[in-house]
Design a protein that fits this description.
2 domains, about 280 residues, ATP binding, alpha/beta, 9 helices, 7-stranded mixed beta sheet
């Protein structure tokens, strides 16, 4: 084992004494750029070398948007029941419990009110880490109640979507949330209260087919996957290759389904500017 010490090079440190770098210190983008996680956080989780937007959850969005990360969460302890006694590889209640333990979230959306650059706002933000950000009864109910809060207090509403679509374990109960949230948003529109919908990567399925695309302003982050069915399903259905960049936020913007795309580093200032314009 003497060769490990490399005494001829003056290196005498044993491999038993070597120290590995802790996991999670660095992030590598799909293009191969590497950035320290501390720098990534300070840059709103966007890699400065290639502008890659890292997927983040409600905790990070709330920290980016709410002034001094101060907010009051709404309905924070609401959890899913098991209306269909559904079971796939495991019973639905077991899946919910394990997801809560794994993510430290109660379900796939969090709602809160606070201030953004001094302006009152209600934000609902989805978490993809909780069963793929799927829309179940709790997601629909929490969004509906957040809209009720906006109506009561006449406060603008921001919805941040990130979802694989409806939650199959709740079947029809999940699909009903599309109608419920859409009806609530109609009340918000009648009251003249602004609704901004931010679509992030990915926003698909029943979420896209309901509240995600019903904003007074539909905006998105760069490079986000936005659509109803996935590109593989569409390709197999129509039997043709899809255009380059199909279902990216840039493609969706070009075809008129988005108002504009916002870099996450400018998200807070752009939204507050938009709200000021609407207030005036």
């Amino acid at each position: 084992m003497a060769w490990f010490k490399r005494t001829d090079k003056g290196i005498k440190t044993s491999t038993a004494e070597k120290k590995d770098a802790p996991d999670g210190l660095w992030f590598k983008t799909p293009k191969g750029n590497i950035i320290h996680t501390r720098e990534l956080k300070n840059n709103s989780y966007v890699c400065p070398d290639d502008d890659f937007h890292v997927k983040i959850g409600s905790a990070e969005y709330f920290e980016i948007l709410f002034d001094d990360n101060k907010f009051k969460e709404l309905d924070e302890n609401m959890t899913s029941g098991d209306p269909l006694t559904f079971s796939d590889t495991k019973p639905y209640p077991v899946r919910i419990k394990s997801s809560i333990e794994k993510t430290n979230l109660k379900d796939a959306v969090r709602t809160a009110h606070g201030k953004i650059n001094g302006l009152n706002i209600v934000i609902a933000c989805m978490d993809f880490s909780f069963i793929g950000g799927s829309m179940g009864s709790v997601v629909g109910e929490k969004i509906a109640r957040a809209i009720d809060y906006s109506l009561k207090h006449k406060v603008p509403f921001l919805m941040i979507s990130k979802s694989g679509g409806a939650r199959m374990m709740e079947a029809g109960f999940s699909l009903m949330q599309m109608a419920k949230t859409s009806a609530k948003l109609a009340l918000l529109d009648q009251a003249g209260i602004p609704y901004i919908s931010l679509l992030t990567d990915p926003t698909t399925g029943g979420v896209t087919a309901s509240y995600a695309m019903l904003g007074d302003f539909n905006i998105a982050e760069p490079g986000a996957l936005i659509g109803f069915a996935g590109p593989r399903v569409i390709r197999e259905t129509i039997g043709k290759d899809l255009p380059k960049g199909f279902q990216s936020s840039e493609f969706v913007l070009e075809h008129g389904f988005l108002d504009f795309i916002i870099d996450r580093r400018q998200l807070k200032s752009r939204i507050s500017t938009l709200l000021n314009l609407l207030n005036n």
